[in-house]
Predict the structure.
Amino acid sequence: MTAIRKSRPADFPAILAIVNAAAQAYRGVIPPDRWHEPYMPEDELRTEIAHGIEFWVAEDDARLTGVMGIQDKGEVALVRHAYVCPASQRQGVGKALLRHVEHVAAKPVLVGTWAAAAWAIDFYRRNGYSVVPRAAKESLLRKYWSIPERQIQTSVVLADKRWLETRRRHEA
């Protein structure tokens, strides 16, 4: 049975391995100028943690099978670095992690991903998220993420129902 728990420092190597193994799906899909090997170097993961990303892990029989970060950005929370081991994909691990971080965040949630990663976009849509319009996407990516302009051009943002409802109220 899969258990979700907050990551510990000892989980760092397994988290890095999961991210880099699962990110192989992006090879040849995302723009070549945005791909690098490894997809996430060790120092980048350490920097992400230092910038407030709290990682949660899925554990099955003492083996980590997935990881998902949540980053508090004040009025919203960002899902960051959501990956499931290739052997554990399509078994509910990603959904369990997503539901857990949504609960932990207790505020509107945004997700950024590559526009060409149809499987990731479909996953979030199946779980109640909607792709935000392009103008809102660019504004959100510039406000909440620290990514290069090229990545802004090649990404999408998905929002949960809480964010969409908040936006509707502000527009009314």
In short: The first helix runs from residue 12 to 22. The beta strands are 2-6, 53-60, 63-72, 77-84, 109-114, 130-131, 155-159. The chain has a mean pLDDT of 96. The helical segments are 12-22, 42-50, 93-105, 118-126, 134-144, 149-153, 161-171.
